[in-house]
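On clarity, I found the account of how folds are encoded harder to follow than it need be. Since the whole study asks how a given chain folds, the encoding of that fold should be made plain. The format is easy to grasp once an entry is in front of the reader. For illustration, here is how one protein appears when written out as sequence plus structure tokens.
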Amino acid sequence: MTETDGPAAPETPASGRHEQARPDPHRHRRLARVLVAVLCAALGFAVVVQVRRTAAGDTLVSARPDDLVQILDGLQRREDDLNKEIADLQATLTRLRSSGASSAEALAEADRQAQALGILTGTVAAAGPGVRITMNDPEHQIPPELLLDAVEELRNAGAEAYQVGPVRIGVDSSFGGSAGAVTLDGTKLTAPYTLLAIGDPPTLAAALAIPGGVLDTVRRAGGTMTTSQAPQITISALRPARTPLYARAAGG
């Protein structure tokens, strides 16, 4: 009589083999919410900048034809860039909301958008082509309004980042004080005043030289102003990040 085989023993898992971890749906949802918030903020900022571009124009009435051509060309390029940026942000936001984007992809996109938004809001350093403006005020007659006008002219001409003295310009910056005692966001500025701006150098320089504009006003106040165009301007001053008290990203 032959011996019969008993029940087969259960197989032992191979050494070193582990069960694959399941993705954490809660972590994915958190990443998605963070990315949506960053993209919404970037999109909103781009739209605000675009609206501000189209609202400018009062100081261009007395501009020379050559200056107008230069400024218009720069603004057209900037408008095209902003429109493309807005379209890209909308497409990215739609894609990541409607698809199951991986955590790595979502984090990479969030980091890229956060860096771009940080440059616009002044919370990260920025570098690029631009201009360096120096205002001398030997008679202490340059008022804070004139520095504000210079910043507004640069913004209207397409500048993307600004620094006045040691202070980074942000969306909530404000000039105060009086001629000879100018303050910016509570920091006292001393002449000569130095302004750094990143953007298309010829366009920025032309905007400040419009007849009856910033340059002429500085001269009437007894001061002088020089504008240097450079292929590389570094803006290192930073603004503290602010947490909104009431506003929240609206989910679609």
Q: What stands out?
A: The domain at 125-235 is CATH 3.30.70.1880 (Alpha-Beta Plaits). The longest strand covers residues 224-235. Helices lie at 25-55, 65-98, 103-121, 144-156, 201-208, 214-220.
